[in-house]
């Protein structure tokens, strides 16, 4: 089978980040292929190959042509799954991968330049490609300062092994340090109605320094879809039953009250809660790319819904206020 596709999804007004970030507005997050993120205790869980292939088929046919993975996702299983799909379908999405985390329980991790080079070689082999379009620091290494780590990424760029590089899960101070050591073109951080710590200082710094800001977790692990309700058990197979730690702080009345506001906002406009939450992120002109991580093909529907129902400035401010 050769996967067909429609045109790429999403448009935005040109900003400095668009000029320096030559990748699509929407990316498919592959963190649940063969695992649940980079958690070693969950390697081998998540989506199996057939489930992941069905999701990639649906994304490609919907015009989502950029796939976002990492060597740590599923201990290498995510990259292997993406590479197998590329070979089977005969298509080439643009690709982001990341490095820092171990691929086995107790395995090595870090951003030492020699390890980064070895990690890239392994990622390229799993993906079945000769060059990675965008390579990210998955998170800072407490033993290797980011300005030092950038030297390793610069060497890979000079060798033509990667098209560009960037950093993930950083704050403004860490980005400044990375910029002293190299030329990262992108920051990828969590950003949503429920995670807005970057809304001022870091995103504004990205704009000032010409670094693209890309957002993962726009639905906060499913919280912004409305699947989690007061006093109700978490749905089977949801993030809160698999890896609740990153979202534990959301389990409070203030969150549920905000979700009530999102529900009312979405109903008044005839869209789903997920679509409204995605539209809120997409309406921020400073955001160069949004990484969505659906679990099933039907979970892609809110992406199309959000793109078809963009938020104007007043509506975005009103929705922001509901989560103040």
Describe the model:
The protein is of the alpha/beta class and 324 residues long. It has a domain at 16-220 and 282-295: TIM Barrel (Alpha-Beta Barrel). The chain has helices at 16-20, 49-61, 77-89, 113-127, 146-158, 172-181, 201-209, 239-242, 253-269, 273-282, 301-308, 313-322, and strands at 26-29, 66-68, 94-99, 134-137, 165-168, 186-190, 212-216, 287-292. Helix 6 links the parallel strand 5 and strand 6 (186-190). The longest helix is centred in the C-terminal third of the chain and has 17 residues, at 253-269. The termini are far apart.
Can you tag this structure with a few keywords?
324 residues; alpha/beta; globular
What's a quick, concise take on this entry?
With 324 residues, this protein is α/β, with parallel strands linked by helices.
Radius of gyration: 19 Å
| CATH third-level topology of the domain at 16-220 and 282-295 | TIM Barrel
Query: Which residues sit in consecutive blocks of at least 5 with pLDDT less than 50?
Result: 4-8, 11-19
Major beta sheet summary:
8 strands, parallel, barrel
**Through-space gap between termini:** 48 Å
Number of helices: 12
Question: What is this structure's SSE topology?
Answer:
Blueprint: H1 16-20, E1 26-29, H2 49-61, E2 66-68, H3 77-89, E3 94-99, H4 113-127, E4 134-137, H5 146-158, E5 165-168, H6 172-181, E6 186-190, H7 201-209, E7 212-216, H8 239-242, H9 253-269, H10 273-282, E8 287-292, H11 301-308, H12 313-322
Parallel strand pairs: 1-2, 1-8, 2-3, 3-4, 4-5, 5-6, 6-7, 7-8
Helix pairs in contact: 3-4, 4-5, 5-6, 9-10, 10-11
């Amino acid at each position: 089978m050769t996967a067909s596709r429609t045109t790429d999804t999403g448009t935005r007004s040109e900003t400095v980040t668009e000029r320096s970030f030559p990748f699509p507005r929407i990316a498919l997050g592959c963190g649940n292929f063969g695992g649940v993120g980079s958690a070693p205790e969950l390697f081998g869980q998540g989506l199996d190959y057939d489930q992941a292939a069905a999701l990639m088929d649906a994304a490609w046919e919907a015009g989502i042509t950029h796939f976002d993975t990492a060597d740590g996702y599923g201990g290498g299983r995510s990259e292997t799954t993406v590479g197998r799909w590329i070979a089977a379908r005969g298509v080439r999405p643009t690709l982001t991968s990341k490095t820092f985390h171990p691929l086995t329980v107790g395995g090595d991790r870090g951003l030492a330049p020699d390890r980064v080079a070895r990690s890239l070689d392994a990622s390229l082999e799993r993906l079945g490609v000769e060059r990675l379009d965008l390579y990210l620091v998955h998170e800072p290494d407490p033993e290797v300062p980011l300005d030092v780590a950038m030297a390793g990424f610069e060497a890979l760029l000079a060798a033509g092994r990667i098209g560009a590089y960037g950093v993930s899960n950083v704050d403004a101070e860490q980005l400044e340090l990375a910029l002293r050591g190299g030329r990262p073109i992108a920051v990828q951080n969590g950003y949503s109605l429920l995670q807005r710590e970057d809304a001022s200082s870091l995103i504004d710094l990205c704009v000032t320094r010409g670094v693209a800001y890309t957002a993962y977790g726009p639905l906060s692990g499913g919280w912004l879809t409305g699947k989690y309700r007061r006093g109700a058990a978490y749905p089977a197979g949801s993030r809160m039953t698999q890896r609740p730690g990153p979202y534990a702080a959301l389990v409070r009345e203030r969150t549920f009250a905000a979700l009530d506001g999102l529900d009312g906002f979405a109903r008044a406009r005839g869209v789903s809660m997920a679509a409204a939450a995605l539209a809120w992120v997409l309406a921020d002109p400073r955001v160069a790319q949004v990484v969505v991580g659906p679990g099933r093909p039907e979970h892609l529907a809110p992406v199309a819904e959000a793109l078809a129902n963009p938020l104007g400035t007043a509506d975005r401010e009103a929705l922001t206020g509901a989560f103040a």
